[in-house]
């Protein structure tokens, strides 16, 4: 009897040794740009947060930010520890917040496209001069800056030659079909998804749309750490991504989110160079923000 009780007590103590550290785990604050509100963060990245907490031992909690600028300022003023963000925000964070890279999120087919209706008579970018073109939200790498640069690479000055409007992607898609705009800019993944939905819902066939310009593959999305975050904490998170890569990817792609297309087939990348983002810096020069346009060497 006494021996059984002793074994039971030992088992309880052993169990507590695993529970107590979790209860006392250090809290890490994580923000994700493009997502506003705790409900949206939980829906899209709740499973990822839980898995990252599990593999690192940190108590990771979401910190909502209202927009991209707010994310930069939150990192700068130590109101958040880590931010998952896009290439455009990375350039600003490097300039204003002295942020540090933890890991890159490499997304397949991540490039901007300029789309017109095939029967519009618009065959190339120069045919758009003087016309209205719709883009996604201001500051988005693949819905605004990337499409603008693709137009500039094709030989026009988009800020002067076009009437640019910004709206949500579903709205600009409908505007294109109605003829309210001559072309739209978005990323390829969104275009492919919308074109497929159009066909499945009995609307336009894929051949009704024409891509008249494409940009190059864009640099990786990034998990960034604030300058106040210790090297030890960064190393621990980075090790979690390296050692549990497939589990973390599955938690994003199969975690119940509604906007996971962009991460399907992704990989985590650790060898990130600042010079990889020089093309994004050229985008800032194109839209008139030279303070974010200084190239860096390899």
Automatic annotation (TrEMBL):
<comment type="similarity">
    <text>Belongs to the bacterial solute-binding protein SsuA/TauA family.</text>
</comment>
<keyword id="KW-0732">Signal</keyword>
<keyword id="KW-0614">Plasmid</keyword>
<feature type="signal peptide">
    <location>
        <begin position="1"/>
        <end position="25"/>
    </location>
</feature>
<protein>
    <submittedName>
        <fullName>Phosphonate ABC transporter, periplasmic phosphonate-binding protein</fullName>
    </submittedName>
</protein>
<dbReference type="Pfam" id="PF12974">
    <property type="entry name" value="Phosphonate-bd"/>
</dbReference>
<dbReference type="GO" id="GO:0042597">
    <property type="term" value="C:periplasmic space"/>
</dbReference>
């Amino acid at each position: 009897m006494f021996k059984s009780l002793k074994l039971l007590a030992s088992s309880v103590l052993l169990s507590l040794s695993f529970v107590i550290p979790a209860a006392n785990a250090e809290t890490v604050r994580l923000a994700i740009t493009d997502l506003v509100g705790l409900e949206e963060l939980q829906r899209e990245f709740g499973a990822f947060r839980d898995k990252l907490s599990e593999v690192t031992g940190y108590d990771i909690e979401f910190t909502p930010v209202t927009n991209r600028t707010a994310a930069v300022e939150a990192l700068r003023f130590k109101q958040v520890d880590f931010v998952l963000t896009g290439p455009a925000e990375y350039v600003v964070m490097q300039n204003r917040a002295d942020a540090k890279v933890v890991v890159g999120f490499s997304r397949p087919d991540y490039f901007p496209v300029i789309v017109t209706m095939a029967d519009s008579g618009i065959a190339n970018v120069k045919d758009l001069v003087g016309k209205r073109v719709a883009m996604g939200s201001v500051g988005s790498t693949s819905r605004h800056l990337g499409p603008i640069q693709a137009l500039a690479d094709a030989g026009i000055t988009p800020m002067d030659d076009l009437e640019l409007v910004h709206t949500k992607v579903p709205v600009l898609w409908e505007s294109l079909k109605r003829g309210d705009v001559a072309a739209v800019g978005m990323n390829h993944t969104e275009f492919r998804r919308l074109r497929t939905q159009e066909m499945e819902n009995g609307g336009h066939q894929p051949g009704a749309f024409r891509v008249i310009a494409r940009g190059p593959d864009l640099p990786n999305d990034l998990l960034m750490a604030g300058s106040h975050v210790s090297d030890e904490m960064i190393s621990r998170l980075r090790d979690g991504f390296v050692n549990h890569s497939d589990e973390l990817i599955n938690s994003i792609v199969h975690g119940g989110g509604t906007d996971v297309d962009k991460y399907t087939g992704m990989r985590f990348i650790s060898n990130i160079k600042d010079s990889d983002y020089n093309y994004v810096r050229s985008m800032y020069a194109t839209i008139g923000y030279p303070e974010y346009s200084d190239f860096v060497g390899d």
